[in-house]
Specification:
Retrotransposon-Effector_Assoc; about 250 residues; DNA/RNA_pol_sf; RT_dom; two-stranded antiparallel ribbon; mainly alpha; two-stranded antiparallel sheet; 2 domains
């Protein structure tokens, strides 16, 4: 396997190829520092609505054994194995043996808010469709327990999304199509090439880079502005000392 570096030189040594890939991903996934302040007043005016007290309670209610089992058994059997090699099929077949441990582990997360490093470890798999490492497509192979936790959270958030999203949002929204925005963009750009009329411009943004370098402090502020409870936000940090979490 060989690939081109950013300066145009080609690398074919396996060790150097691995180093090039790791270096690219570190730069891509590292947090982008920014001194731009977040205007919370503008954010409060932007969302169409805030979560109600009942909706917050639904997000925070205790997870049940039935909920955990239903989510796990809805996962695809052999999709994207994590580094531990245990797929969803293993847990389904061995549920009578490992089921209680799985339930306790997931309930522990929702109670404490702490996720074991072993559950949170993912393997980044590269899809080498192009020779340039900056354009390699990446997928993350997550642990099955992590997938269950993520899907439980997603299932709980899904019912409240209609109350805090704009009508222009079409991506990842059930019943809406991303193609609608593509058609809208084509309509807006029609006749841009003409010399007559009001001066106009268009920007082409590399959305892949923007998506992978999210400002997580901004995400936290948006969640709190919409009304998500503190316990359900993703930016809480704590120090575990002798089985107690501080911070």
């Amino acid at each position: 396997m060989s690939m081109c570096k950013e300066d145009g030189t080609r690398v074919d040594n396996p060790t150097k190829v691995k180093k090039q890939i790791v270096g690219f991903l570190k730069r891509l996934l590292s947090e982008v520092s920014s001194n731009t302040p977040i205007n919370q007043e503008v954010l409060r005016k932007a969302p169409p609505g805030r979560l109600t007290h009942d909706q917050c309670n639904d997000l925070l209610k205790g997870v049940t054994e039935g909920e955990i089992k239903d989510v796990l058994f809805s996962l695809k059997d052999n999709k994207a194995l994590a580094s531990d090699g245990y797929n969803a099929l293993f847990f389904k077949k061995a549920w009578g043996i490992v089921g209680n441990d799985v339930v306790r582990a997931i309930k522990s997360f929702f109670t404490s808010g702490c996720l074991l490093r072993e559950f949170n470890a993912t393997t980044i798999a590269l899809i080498p469709k192009v020779p340039d490492p900056t354009k390699l497509k990446t997928i993350s192979c997550c642990n099955t327990i992590y997938k269950c936790i993520s899907k439980i959270i997603a299932n709980r958030i899904k019912p409240v999304l209609p109350h805090c999203r704009c009508k222009q949002q079409t991506t990842f929204v059930e019943g809406r199509r991303i193609g609608n925005n593509i058609l809208l963009a084509q309509e807006l750009l029609r006749n841009y090439h003409r010399d007559q009329g009001t001066p106009q411009c268009a920007l082409k943004v590399d959305l892949m880079k923007a998506y992978d370098t999210v400002r997580w402090d901004f995400v936290l502020v948006v969640l709190k502005t919409i009304g998500f409870p503190q316990q359900s936000c993703i930016m809480d940090y704590g120090v575990c000392y002798y089985d107690q979490v501080y911070g």
